[in-house]
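Q: What structure does this chain adopt?
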Amino acid sequence: MNCENKTSKLKTIMIVLLLCLFCNIKSWASETPAEPYPATEEDKLQFILSQLKKANAQLTSFVADFKETRIFLYSPEAEVAGGKIYFKKPQQVRWDYYPPGEKHIVLTPSKAWLYLPEIKQVQLINLKGEKKLSSLPIGLSGPSPDFEKNYQIRLIKEEGEALENKRYILELSPVSDSEVAAAYTRILLTLSEKRWLPADKIELLELTGDKTIIELSEISLNTKLSSKLFKFDVPKDVEIIDHTEKQPPSETQPT
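A:
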């Protein structure tokens, strides 16, 4: 797989993972005793990160609507798409884009499928032997152990006073030797203290200067999802581009 395709693959998986990872769970503010409000900026940041870890621990699955806006550096026209995402632990994601521009992405621990109905094409990507994308800002089961090593994290904005409207914006800047740094210069997360997760807004700024903005809504938590959602059946009469055959062999892992 050439460098351009590998970068494109990383962007696709990155967006899918980010969508599923910053998903809704029960509000810890309503279930735990009140904690002293952090006094310093560093204390606030550590408080926010701890709440994200606690919240994600309760997650088993979710369904949500999403809106994705692509803003291009050299084009006045933004590209807007929408659809529905399904997530189920461990590491199972389905991302359905509505027409126009219909496409479907299914991601499992071992494989990823990208189906483009308009051109009748399916792309198959092998995820075995990957580094499990450990340099992403958060893992499917919560922040990775080296999360804070892979990013410079800043609280860049705090707004609102009451719990109902208090929000924080975190800036994640990938360190130079991380996988994500090959595609993105920074990531902005807008978080609501009322629920912590999901992020109200996720902004991905690419090296090219292009930007992707993702917003989630209509979230249903810990919904019982059929495993069939994450077993992609290739439709008849479609072209299959199998990238797995072009990748070097890796350690055998369970499918």
